[in-house]
Amino acid sequence: MAEDQPGPPGRDRDDRPAQPLDTPAQPPQPPPASGQPGGDLQPSVPTAPLPGDRYAPPPAMPPTSGPPPEALGGFWRRLVGAVIDWLLVGILAGAVGALFGVDTPSPPPAQGDGFRFQLDWAGPYILIELVYFTYFHATSAGQSIGNKILGVRVLDAEGGGSLPYVRSFTRALMSNLSAIPCFLGYFWMLWDPQKRTWHDMVANSLVVRASAYPPGEFGRPAR
After folding, report:
1. Cα-Cα end-to-end distance for the chain
2. Do 73 and 210 meet the contact criterion of CB atoms below 8 Å apart?
3. pLDDT confidence of residue 21
4. What is the model's pTM?
5. Number of CB atoms found within 10 A of residue 124's CB
6. Residue 82: how many other CB atoms lie within 10 Å
7. Of 66, 68, 216, nearest to 142 (Cα)?
8. 7, 91, 143, 217: which has the highest count of C-beta atoms within 10 A?
9. Which residues of 186-205 are buried (b: 16+ CB within 10 A; e: fewer)?
10. Using CA atoms, how far apart are residues 151 and 1, in angstroms rounded to an integer?
11. Which CA distances in Å does 42 have to 30, 31, 32, 91, 94?
12. What does residue 202 show for φ and ψ, rounded to 5 degrees?
């Protein structure tokens, strides 16, 4: 039969099965990563999201180094605001001292006790000061009354939000220590790049202009 006849000399019959015509095309493989064989030979072409791609990652934002210098609270603005707050605290402390009889003059020290330091007059002032600054600087506005009048506010140096009550109390307490060495802790803002005092550094806070960073509602607790 014709099927059993050998083929022409010099040609071997191809017994391999024919490839089907409907073989699906293989999807393109991604290029090898850098460090793998052939990876360094691929050109580094920046990939951009296709139009309409909802799952494209957002572009990376450059790291920020804090508010610009013109957005920070200046020395004189903060000083006038602090004087207003100190006067208000002094009035409240005088009222509390008169209510509880703390402002009554103490008897003169006995012989030999001339160097006895009495804190009965400073007790109400320190107490009212701690409560005053702790509360107002932990509100959504981050402003005391003096801060509001002068247009500055206290905020968290990391997240930009309001200070927690613990850090606000720490800042108020440290402000008294900043005043002991001839107010050196307050004047420190003149040399600090972010215009921070010692109590700002301890509480990790910043004082900024309210016009640059609009505050929340004045006197409203943040939490």
Report:
1. 98
2. no
3. 47
4. 0.64
5. 22
6. 16
7. 216
8. 143
9. bebbeeeebbbbbbbbbbeb
10. 108
11. 11, 7, 8, 75, 78
12. -65, -40
